[in-house]
Write a structure and sequence with these properties.
0% helix; four-stranded antiparallel beta sheet
């Protein structure tokens, strides 16, 4: 079992950038594929980015390709989501999730076993 805690959200400027952190405890993230999802009020949660356990495979939803990067710092047991050129449509609660299938970089929520509590990102003009 792994516990995940997101941080780094807040009020962001359109056209600016963000870096969200997902700190893990209980297990080392080298054993997990990781994903980022987001959910706006009244909308379904949607996939953002994912990587397998060694970050040799990454996937991104079309709306963030070229703007977002998922990365890891193994020494800190932390996964990051960096995104630039922020848009108003990026406003959402962002969640990180862990998948015990270490070889996958899945876009499907059902593939993930553990979830953080989420961090709010609000993009303003």
């Amino acid at each position: 079992q792994v516990q995940l805690v997101e941080s780094g959200g807040g009020l962001m400027q359109a056209g600016g950038s963000l870096r969200l952190s997902c700190a893990a405890s209980g297990r080392t993230l080298i054993n997990y594929s990781m994903g980022w999802f987001r959910q706006a009020p009244g909308k379904e949660r949607e996939f953002v980015a994912a990587s397998n356990s060694i970050s040799s495979v990454t996937t991104y939803t079309d709306s963030v390709k070229g703007r977002a990067t998922i990365s890891r710092d193994n020494a800190k047991n932390t996964v990051y989501l960096h995104m630039n050129s922020l848009k108003l449509e990026d406003t959402a609660v962002y969640y990180c999730a862990a998948n015990g299938e270490r070889s996958s970089a899945s876009t499907r929520e059902a593939e993930y076993d553990y979830w953080g509590q989420g961090t709010q990102v609000t993009v303003s003009s």
